[in-house]
Structure formats: structure tokens, C-alpha cells
Specification:
The complex is a heterodimer. By secondary structure, chain A is mostly helical. In chain A, about 60% of the residues lie in helices and about 0% in strands. In chain A, α2 crosses α3, α2 packs across α4 and α2 packs across α6. Chain B is an alpha+beta fold. Chain B has twelve helices and 22 strands. The chains are: A mainly alpha, B alpha+beta.
């Protein structure tokens, strides 16, 4: 097994344009940040917000998924400027008490059911006031991004980029070796798109 | 020994020397560094991000964003409305993760620059050879038919139906096969970002690159820039726990239009004109997401096959730009069950956008904490152009059979037919209800021929700091109205040539 140092050396010396194996976590000696340390109270708030933001079943829900998403959010926070990351923690606590300041109840998000918490956060995200709406921009973006980046979710969405990219790398290797692209190498066009392309505007919009 | 160094290779308090230190490895820094290295200078790049070659790229957002993007993409321009933006933080900078469009600066923009600077240096004729040079290096050419995907077909044919001009993109690519993962780093190696084009040539010419090192302040002695003080970021804890100084005869700042002025603003320079950090331009974008009644699989095929240029005279462009679900979901207006309902249509979606050329600039300020604070407000004129652009683009999608179009307005999220297009005008009164986004940041250290009106001269040299040059999109006197990559590269090429020419005159880099 190559050591971390050997993997790092290989990454720093390999040809810059040589394709790899498309692995989700490239084993190339690059060290990702550890999740941002958080106190138990903040972790509970983050967990509550994750539960309220991720789609509920029948959307995919693997065991331990919410914990994994919370960990991903904490890793992402490490890449923010330190001040922004601290601000984000404060924002989480502010959102936790949103039932109170939205006059929707006396209990924080950590103490209410996730369906209800989700509805309260929806009210914030769709507020007519820009400053209120903006409160949800970061938390919603980070949590949903982590959720919709999962393999089990991709499978249900019929999204399989790795198989496709692998086939395109093979095509490019063929082209680089002097081969010609054939009609089969093109991206398949759905017949419905072909048909509607031939319809005039008035007919198409009806 | 590798020419690329990272955190583990540094010692706290280390001092390195070079003839030229270049801060940044994107479209500006990589070009100027490579040209000077090939001219025989000892060049050392300082890059805040890491080195991630093609072999490390994949289709997953959560792995790629921390590696490649600044601040995990949590970057926002303040204003009305606030505009999230992204930029690269890795070797190759934003060229590693952009769409790879290589449009030259339009003639009318260069004519404006010539007028603004009252010199011919930035005229079309003067820049021609720089454009030719960089286009050759990055292999700028049209896409092969085999790489065109269905979202590009939708845009092309919809534009034809409505009589809008559509131009097929020229891109920096060599046999691009349309893997459509540009935004997470091209996994095939086809996109000729500076990571795979300029940087390897710079290394071949002897340049070195110090990665994971943030330029913190310039070293200024006797009124002259003598180097840069950097902080190394511990990859595990993300704490800046090592200090590294690089001393050099010349310092080239190419950290992008937000961080270049932020670094310069730390010092009492760039002040004769008061223009440092001013003239911030960003080509704001509004996303228009269409859902079709049949599967498009927009992730298959080149990320942007062309652009609708029919409204270029009004400073408006339309283009497609599909992104992975992990990136798209971060931008939608709903969460929970509603987000799932919406995202289930992912394979039937086409993500497109309206780009509006800036009519009034914003500015960058440096906060007391050292962070840049970008500020930009769209004007009422911009707002009008967005409303027109969004309506035309939605019309284009309905003409191609879209069943629903999601709009970039907080109070009108979607319409289901062309009959509902008038609702856009009826409901949109305030700029604050627009949801915008941008990736083109420009103009905050503008070049010019008079020190009272610009930050650098026409060589890219900072007027009031000898030994310091700028070579990135900060130099733009005005917005370019198209993807800025090739313009940045051409200007960086010009800066490198003039630095070397000065050296020839004086026997060494100018003091």
C-alpha cells in the first residue's frame, strides 16, 4: 500500500491532464479538513435544521443519512472564512429560535417535529422581506447540496454521471489515438425533441 | 524534487527568493508566469488553493467544492439584490471550473477602452497578436458535433424558431467529448484550463508553485514592492499556522477582481485616482430553469454549446449551463418535500441563464477583519433588461415544448405556459425580488493612461508602487459583455511582454 506521502507525490507529479478513475473520494494524498468542532447544543440545532430541510420519505432516506449530511456541512464550514463560519453558527441558533420570533410557538426547532420545523423554515425562505429570506440561503443550500449529492439519491433521479463520463473518456482516448467520431458517438436525441423542433412556434406552445 | 509545494513542505518563518512572484494561477497569473518563465526569469507562483490534477476530478459536488472553490462557494456580493458568486481557489483558478468559453473582447468594447484610455494599446489591432497567441495556447475552437447535448439543441432550435441569433461557442478544448463536468474540473483533460495548458509549460520552463499559501500582505521597503508575506493553511484544521515570506524583484498580483484589490487595499497604495476597488463589474446572471415533458439528460453533452446573441446590442446574452443535482439543489427556492417534488424532474430539466452587461459598477472594500466586502446594486435599467431577457428565454423554452419554467423571482417562482408570460411584468416591481448569481468578476484595478483615473498604467504596473503589477480581470476598464477568460489571458500576455521589455531596457526588472 502506498503511503500518504507517496500518494501525495504521485498527485503532484502526474501529468496534469491524465484522467483518473472518477472515484468519489480520490485516494490521492490530499487531506480534507476535519469537521468543524461544535458543542453539543450547536450539534443538536444543526441536526434539527438538517431534518427539517432534507426531503422526507418517500424521498430516499438511508440510515444515518442525516448525521452524514450534518458532518458534510461541518466540513464545508471549515472552508469558509473563519468569521463567516462563526456567523453561520450564530445563524443556526437564530433559526433554531425562529418559531419564537416568527410568532409560531414557544419551542425551538430542536423541540418540535421536523414537519412543523420544515413549515416554519419554509415561511422564512419565502418571506416577502429580503433580509428574512436570506437567512435560509446558506443553511438550505448546504444541506440540500449534500443531500442531492448522494449516490442513493442520484439513483432515484436516474442520474449516473460516472458511467457516462467513463464512456466519454474512452471516446476521447480513441480520438487522441487518431480515431474518428461516428454517428453513434453523438449524444442521443429524444424523438419528442426532434418532433417539436419541427413544429412552428404557435403549434408548439399550445 | 517536485516543482509544486504544499503545506507539508513549508516551515514556519521560511524565506524564499525568486525574480518574479506571481500571486494566483488562473487566467491572468498562469499566463504571465509562464511567459516570464519562458523568457528566462525565475518565477514562483503563490496559490491559495491546492493542486488537483485531472486524475482527481469526479462528478461529486461535496468532494469537489472544497478542493476547487473559494470559501466552499459561500461568497456573496452585498447589494440590491445580494448576488452569490463563485470563483476558483485551486491551481488553474477559475479556468479549472469555468465553462471554457473563449470569446474575444467585442470590437465595440475595445473601441470603448481605446477611448477611455486615449491610447491605442488596448485597440483591436494592438491586441490582435495577443489574442492569437493565447487562443493557440489554449486550443480555442468550435465543438465537435458529437459533443452537443440536448439542452444545447433546445437553445439552438428555440432561437431559430423565434428568430434570435444563436452562435456556437468557441471553447478552449482539444477533442472535448461533452462530459459536462466542467464546473467540477474537466475529468477527461479536454478543457485546456491553465491547469493543463499554461502551468505545465511554466513548470517546464523552471517555474515553481507554492500551493495552499495565502498572500497576506505585500512586503514594501523604501516605497518599492519587494515580495509578499504569506500564511500557509493547515489542510486538516484550516488554521493559518505557518508564515512564509517570498522576496522577489517583481510581484504580480493576479488574485482575481475581488482579492487583488483586497490585497492592495491593505497598503496605502492605489490612491492617486481613488479607483482601487472601484469599478467593480460582475455580469449578473438570472437562472431560468425549464422542465420538459421528456427526458433531456442535460448532463450529457458539452456544458454550453452556444449563446443566444440576438440581444447583444442591449447587453443581454442567453446560454445553457447545466450543473449536477448537488449544485442545482443549492439554488432552488424550496426545501423538504417540495424540493423532492421539483428535483424528481432533474433528467427533464434544462438550466439556462440571462446574462446582463453591467450598466453601473459596484465596489470592493476591505473590512476591518481583512475580508473583502463586494457591493453592487443592479440599476432600474438592468432590472428592465432582466425582465425582458427572462421573458424571452421563457418564451424560447415554451416554443420548444417546456411544460414548466422556473423563474428567478422570489414572488413568482414558476409559470406553466406562454400565456402566463405577462405575469412577469405584472408582478415584478422591485429589484430585491430578483434572484441573481454571477461568475464574472472584473474591473477593480482598472488600467489606464492617466494616474488620476486608473490604478495601473498600460503595462499593468501599479502607478504608485514600483515593483508591483496587476494581471487579471481587475485591469478591465469596463465590462466586456462576454465570457472574460480570453480577454484576461490576452491582457496578462501583454503585461508579461512589457515587464520583459522593461527588463531588456534596464538590464533587470524595473526598480
Amino acid at each position: 500500500m502506498p503511503t500518504l506521502e507517496e500518494k501525495r507525490h504521485r498527485r503532484l507529479t502526474i501529468a496534469a491532464d491524465e484522467p483518473g478513475d472518477l472515484a468519489r473520494h480520490p485516494d490521492d494524498g490530499f487531506i480534507m479538513a476535519e469537521p468543524r468542532p461544535m458543542g453539543a447544543a450547536t450539534l443538536r440545532v444543526l441536526d434539527a435544521i438538517v431534518r427539517a430541510v432534507v426531503p422526507p420519505p418517500p424521498a430516499p432516506h438511508a440510515p444515518g443519512m442525516e448525521k452524514e449530511i450534518a458532518t458534510t456541512v461541518r466540513v464545508m464550514m471549515q472552508y469558509m472564512p473563519p468569521l463567516s463560519a462563526r456567523g453561520f453558527v450564530l445563524l443556526l441558533h437564530f433559526l433554531n429560535w425562529s418559531p419564537l420570533w416568527r410568532l409560531r410557538g414557544l419551542l425551538p426547532l430542536t423541540r418540535i417535529r421536523s414537519e412543523r420545523a420544515s413549515r416554519i423554515l419554509t415561511g422564512i425562505a419565502s418571506s416577502r422581506w429580503l433580509l428574512i429570506r436570506l437567512l435560509m440561503l446558506g443553511p438550505k443550500g448546504l444541506v440540500l447540496s449534500a443531500y442531492f449529492d448522494r449516490d442513493d439519491v442520484h439513483q432515484v433521479l436516474r442520474y449516473d454521471p460516472t458511467t457516462f463520463i467513463r464512456s466519454r473518456i474512452e471516446l476521447r482516448q480513441r480520438l487522441l489515438a487518431g480515431g474518428e467520431a461516428t454517428a453513434e458517438d453523438g449524444i442521443a436525441e429524444p424523438p419528442e425533441l426532434t418532433a417539436i423542433s419541427q413544429q412552428p412556434f404557435e403549434q408548439a406552445v399550445r | 524534487m517536485s516543482k509544486i509545494l504544499e503545506y507539508a513542505d513549508y516551515e514556519d518563518g521560511e524565506l524564499l527568493r525568486a525574480e518574479v512572484v506571481v500571486i494566483g494561477t488562473g487566467a491572468g497569473g498562469a499566463v504571465v508566469g509562464k511567459e516570464l518563465a519562458e523568457a528566462g526569469y525565475d518565477v514562483l507562483f503563490v496559490e491559495e488553493g491546492g493542486y488537483h490534477p485531472t486524475s482527481s476530478f469526479n462528478a461529486f459536488v461535496q468532494e469537489s467544492v472544497p478542493r476547487l472553490y473559494r470559501d466552499a462557494s459561500a461568497t456573496v456580493i452585498l447589494g440590491k439584490p445580494p448576488i452569490p458568486y463563485v470563483e476558483g481557489r485551486c491551481v488553474g483558478g477559475s479556468t479549472t471550473l469555468n465553462g471554457g468559453m473563449t470569446w474575444r473582447t467585442p470590437e465595440n468594447v475595445l473601441a470603448r477602452w481605446e477611448k477611455v484610455t486615449a491610447q491605442r494599446d488596448l485597440s483591436s489591432a494592438s491586441l490582435e497578436r495577443f489574442f492569437e497567441r493565447v487562443e493557440e495556447h489554449v486550443s480555442a475552437k468550435p465543438q465537435g458535433d458529437y459533443s452537443i447535448g440536448n439542452d444545447s439543441r433546445v437553445m439552438d432550435r428555440g432561437a431559430q424558431k423565434l428568430g434570435f441569433e444563436y452562435l456556437h461557442n468557441i471553447r478552449n478544448q482539444d477533442r472535448c467529448v461533452g462530459a459536462n463536468s466542467c464546473v467540477l474540473g474537466c475529468p477527461t483533460g479536454a478543457k485546456r484550463s491553465t491547469l493543463v495548458s499554461y502551468m505545465p509549460k511554466a513548470f517546464d520552463a523552471g517555474a515553481r508553485c507554492m500551493t495552499m499559501l495565502r498572500a497576506d500582505e505585500l512586503l514594501i521597503e523604501g516605497g518599492r514592492c519587494r515580495g509578499v508575506r504569506c500564511r500557509a493553511v493547515n489542510p486538516r484544521t484550516r488554521r493559518e499556522d505557518k508564515r512564509v515570506d517570498v522576496r522577489a524583484d517583481a510581484v504580480v498580483v493576479a488574485a482575481g477582481a475581488v482579492h487583488t484589490p483586497n490585497l492592495l487595499l491593505r497598503h496605502d497604495i492605489g490612491r492617486p485616482s481613488g479607483q482601487l476597488g472601484q469599478n467593480f463589474l460582475c455580469h449578473p446572471n438570472a437562472k431560468v430553469l425549464a422542465v420538459y415533458p421528456f427526458a433531456l439528460k442535460s448532463w450529457e453533452g458539452v456544458n454550453q454549446g452556444g449563446q443566444v446573441r440576438g440581444f447583444r446590442d442591449r447587453g443581454i446574452l442567453f446560454a445553457e449551463n447545466f450543473v449536477p443535482p448537488g449544485a442545482l439543489a443549492a439554488q432552488i427556492h424550496v426545501h423538504g418535500a417540495e424540493a423532492w417534488d421539483m428535483m424528481q424532474d432533474y433528467d427533464r430539466m434544462a438550466l439556462t441563464g440571462v446574462l446582463v452587461e453591467d450598466s453601473r459598477p459596484g465596489r470592493i472594500k476591505r473590512s476591518v477583519f481583512g475580508m473583502p466586502v463586494p457591493r453592487y446594486d443592479i440599476t432600474h435599467e438592468d432590472h428592465e433588461r432582466f425582465l425582458d431577457g427572462v421573458a424571452h428565454l421563457a418564451e424560447l423554452h415554451f416554443s420548444m415544448g417546456a411544460s414548466r419554467v422556473y423563474l428567478p423571482f422570489s414572488n413568482l417562482h414558476a409559470i406553466d405556459s406562454a400565456d402566463e408570460l405577462p405575469k412577469i411584468r405584472q408582478t415584478q416591481r422591485k429589484r430585491s425580488s430578483m434572484e441573481l448569481f454571477t461568475v464574472h468578476l472584473m474591473g477593480t484595478a482598472r488600467m489606464g493612461s492617466r494616474r488620476e483615473r486608473s490604478v495601473t498604467d498600460l503595462r499593468g504596473a501599479v502607478w504608485d508602487l514600483p515593483g508591483c503589477w496587476v494581471a487579471d480581470a481587475s485591469l478591465f476598464p469596463t465590462a466586456v459583455g462576454v465570457n472574460p477568460q480570453i480577454t484576461i489571458m490576452a491582457l496578462a500576455s501583454l503585461v508579461a511582454e512589457r515587464m520583459a521589455a522593461d527588463d531588456l531596457d534596464r538590464g533587470r526588472l524595473p526598480c
